[in-house]
Amino acid sequence: GDTAATLIAEINDLRRQRNAIILAHNYEYGEIQEIADYVGDSLGMAQAAARTNADVIVVCGVYFMAETAAILNPQRTVLIPDANAGCSLADSITVEQLRAWKAANPGAVVVSYVNTSAAVKAESDYCCTSGNAERVINAIPADKTILFLPDMFLGSYLRQKTGRPLKIWAGECHVHAAIRPDMIEQKRAAMPDAEFLIHPECGCVSSAMDYLASGAIDRRGTHILSTEGMIAHVNRSSASRFVVATEIGVLHRMCKANPNKQFVPIDDSISCRYMKLITLEKVRNSLRDLREPVTVPPEIAARARVAIERMLAL
Ligand code: 13P
Ligand code: SF4
């Protein structure tokens, strides 16, 4: 087969020829992050997609991220190197289920996490990511009922953070739901000097919030953050060791920018098989053959765009 160096050279040639930009999520393999023009969280990827002038956008991430890029760029070609890169969280609510939930709660404001299909976004008032969810909820008038979907752990975190009585859909990400309180407790006992970075989609997020509210002396070393929030935090923290409770791909940028700090994944098994479907070979094929194009029907895109743009405006 082709060596990594050959593939990278081909990708660079094709990127120029196609006037393409490559966006990668923080959970991608390090070698994918290395060839990307932009690496970040879901919010950063949407912002990068919104401001590009490239003709072709290659989304190294999961399908809803490519749909978001397509919604924001109806005139550009949006490609995903493997169309099977789905998301168990986005799959936890269908548009039919959302319509029924709205019908049971007339007048409610619907806030959808970005990990949703374009059709679900089209039925939503606001989109949000883990990086701006609090800001989005605080911007909604206090007398409104809010339906938050689809992640129940992020939802319960937001309910506690904002004090708003959110109605929460019972969805979860199988990768983050597997991060349980006992995993954190074990690492805390083994590494009492470390700072703990916890993604709000984690199954341990409520116990982490209880810990933050407790009198524990080292509670200041526990932080609940989005992936981009984690990276910004480790770059400025004076701690020398961090336990990272999210998908392992996020360690790549942390280690690269902080060679003298130690980063410990909460568990080596915390890996998203969908994110890891994207390989150098598939990125090369994607640029070479313009595969797989991702499009969103115009009437769904128009309504979903309103929810995404409301988020980007905040
Ligand atoms: P963020 O990168 O927005 O923190 O999202 C995490 C995630 O699971 C994306 O799929
Ligand atoms: Fe979806 Fe979870 Fe994978 Fe993120 S880590 S893409 S939420 S399945």
TrEMBL record:
Keyword field: 4Fe-4S, Cytoplasm, Iron, Iron-sulfur, Metal-binding, Methyltransferase, Pyridine nucleotide biosynthesis, Transferase
Any one Pfam family match given in the protein's UniProt record, by short name: NadA
Cofactor: [4Fe-4S] cluster
GO terms (BP aspect): 'de novo' NAD+ biosynthetic process from L-aspartate; methylation
UniProt-listed Enzyme Commission number(s): 2.5.1.72
Pathway where it operates: Cofactor biosynthesis; NAD(+) biosynthesis; quinolinate from iminoaspartate: step 1/1
GO function term, MF aspect, one: methyltransferase activity
Uppermost EC category: transferase
Name recorded for this polypeptide: Quinolinate synthase
